[in-house]
Write a structure and sequence with these properties.
Blueprint: E1 17-23, H1 27-39, E2 44-48, H2 59-62, H3 73-76, E3 78-80, E4 86-88, E5 110-114, E6 119-123, E7 128-131, E8 136-144, E9 148-150, H4 154-157, H5 161-165, E10 167-169, H6 173-185, E11 188-192, H7 196-206, E12 211-215, H8 228-240, E13 243-246, E14 251-257, E15 260-265, E16 270-273, E17 275-278, E18 282-284, H9 289-292, E19 303-304, E20 310-312, E21 315-317, E22 322-326, E23 330-332, H10 337-351, E24 363-368, E25 372-378, E26 386-391, H11 399-406, E27 441-448, E28 451-458, H12 464-473, H13 480-484
Parallel strand pairs: 1-2, 1-8, 2-5, 8-21, 10-17, 11-12, 11-17, 12-13, 19-22
Antiparallel strand pairs: 3-4, 6-7, 7-8, 9-18, 14-15, 15-16, 20-21, 22-23, 24-25, 25-28, 26-27, 27-28
Helix pairs in contact: 1-10
Region (Disordered): 398-419
GO molecular function, one term: DNA binding
Domain FAD/NAD(P)-binding: 21-343
């Protein structure tokens, strides 16, 4: 469907007051709007976003959109989920929203989006904000869901204009469009970063007819998340997707020479390429902390909020920018789609008086091509001790098969709520790893003080409620092999 770019010519009479003001137009903000309207059906909600687009989901920008065979995908932004069903990255068509200037007068309320406008100042005592065009809007309740900006490497920022022009920081629709175009016009792209985004983009670009190099400081892909043996195994999979991997790589400098970029590594290695994509993490956007007098967490970054996602009595924060207190796992900040859904929804409920703490664990997923995928929940950090229990995979154990069965493509648990009561263990005993080098499917437990705080389901799908329950229970387990049986991984 057609999305008008910007609802807001200068002549429009913008609302001077919004009962619910949501700053930021991403997933968390949209989830909050939906949640507010569900609990307060007449609610008038105003979303203010500095992007030109209506709220959309980001995961397909590094996942499914790259696998589309529709040449006009950069325009339509429609993608086939692994299960073959098509959808748009926009949560709702423009007809779902009301025009901002109608917000005051509309009888049953609704959700309005101000696109291309940035909130630059927050007057917390006066309950109002100022936009970059000096417009003031007052609010009764406010959500900050400003997300983050992609980090760059200082050596690239210092390298000058020509290098910066050939570097993509990947976050938005416009970045997807420009990288797609670059990939059709250059011979070599180098991705710096070994995490989710870097690895997903490497696999996506690896399928195109160009040289794709991925470099990172760790020993293997996802090295900060996966235990070393699994990280190494994943790296081999990424290589099979046509990607050249350069590991233990620390960038010393980047220069432009003979129309090529030269990346000099600290150990003396030299890499020549046409274009760089930096995927080295996100800097939470806390621009409003100063004017709003809001606390920023010194360890995790982001606005510091309580277990109800509250920064002040009528200000909440959700999504990437929220450093929240998880009553199970302690102080955290999480950068994932499903967390944006879960925290946005919770903030919306609390903005309408629910007073609920954060305890429902969000999950995240990463697919490296259609054959390797995993879902994870809780704190998954490779510096924690881990226990992995594996079994042989069958053809059913792929992301493609899983979404075909479940019928959802965006594997956000929160969209398809399911609760595990006491799970029934499968009775067939099986060896821990049948083949040491074939991690076909399995469960990896992450431990802190002998308690499971994180779980990765490796090519094991639609079992997230079981994992969520184990973390929620927070018990010490004598034998994790027994716990692994709850996931029925040994069944064909």
């Amino acid at each position: 469907f057609f999305v008008p770019v910007g609802f807001t010519p200068a002549s429009l009479k913008l609302p001077s007051h919004a009962p619910y003001l949501l700053i930021g137009g991403g997933t968390a903000s949209f989830a909050a709007a939906r949640s507010i309207r569900a609990r307060d059906p007449g609610a008038k909600v105003l979303i203010v976003t500095d992007e030109p687009d209506l709220p959309y989901m980001r995961p397909p920008l590094s996942k499914e959109l790259w696998f589309s065979d529709d040449p006009s995908v950069t325009e339509t932004l429609r993608f086939k989920q692994w299960n073959g069903k098509e959808r748009s990255i926009y949560f709702q068509p423009s007809s779902f929203y009301i025009n901002p200037e109608e917000l005051d007068s509309v009888e049953n309320g609704g959700v309005a989006v101000l696109t291309g406008k940035k909130v630059v100042h927050m007057d917390v005592r006066g309950n109002k904000v100022k936009l970059d065009d000096d417009t003031e809007i007052s609010y009764d309740k406010c959500l900050i869901a400003t997300g983050g900006v992609p980090r760059n490497l200082q050596v690239i920022e210092r390298a000058g204009e020509e290098v910066m022009r050939r570097t993509t920081l990947f976050r938005k629709v416009s970045d997807f469009r420009s990288l797609d175009k670059v990939s059709r016009n250059v011979k070599s792209i180098t991705i710096i970063g070994g995490g989710f985004l870097g690895s997903e983009l490497a696999c996506a670009l690896g399928r195109r007819y160009l040289e794709v190099i991925q470099m990172f400081p760790e020993k293997g892909n996802m090295g900060k998340v996966l235990p070393e043996y699994l990280s190494n195994w994943t790296t081999e999979k990424v290589k099979k997707e046509g990607v050249k991997i350069i590991s233990e790589a620390l960038v010393k400098s980047v220069t432009c020479k003979d129309d090529k970029l030269e990346i000099h590594l600290k150990d003396g290695r030299l890499v020549k390429t046409d274009h760089i994509v930096t995927a080295v993490g996100l800097e939470p956007n806390v621009d409003l902390a100063n004017s709003g007098g809001l606390e920023v967490d010194s360890d995790f970054g982001g606005y510091r909020v309580n277990a109800e996602l509250q920064a002040r009595s009528n200000i909440w924060v959700a999504g990437d920018a929220a450093c929240f207190y998880d009553i199970r796992l302690g102080r955290r900040r999480v950068e994932h789609h499903d967390h944006a859904v879960v925290s946005g929804r919770l903030a919306g409920e609390n903005m309408t008086g629910a007073s609920k703490p954060y305890w429902h664990q969000s999950m995240f997923w990463s697919d490296l091509g259609p054959d390797v995928g995993y879902e994870a929940i809780g704190i998954v950090d490779s510096s924690l001790p881990t226990v992995g229990v594996f079994a042989k995979a069958t053809a059913k154990d792929t992301p493609k098969a899983a979404t075909e069965e479940s019928g959802t493509g965006i594997r956000s648990e929160s969209e398809t709520e399911d609760t595990a009561t006491s799970a029934v263990a499968s009775v067939t005993p099986a060896p821990v790893v049948e083949n040491k080098d074939d991690y076909g499917k399995g469960v990896i437990f992450y431990l802190r003080d002998k308690v499971v705080v994180g779980i990765i389901l490796w090519n094991v799908f639609n079992r997230m409620p079981v994992a969520r329950k184990i973390i929620k229970d927070g018990e010490e387990h004598a034998d994790l092999n027994e716990v692994a049986k709850l996931f029925n991984i040994h069944e064909d």
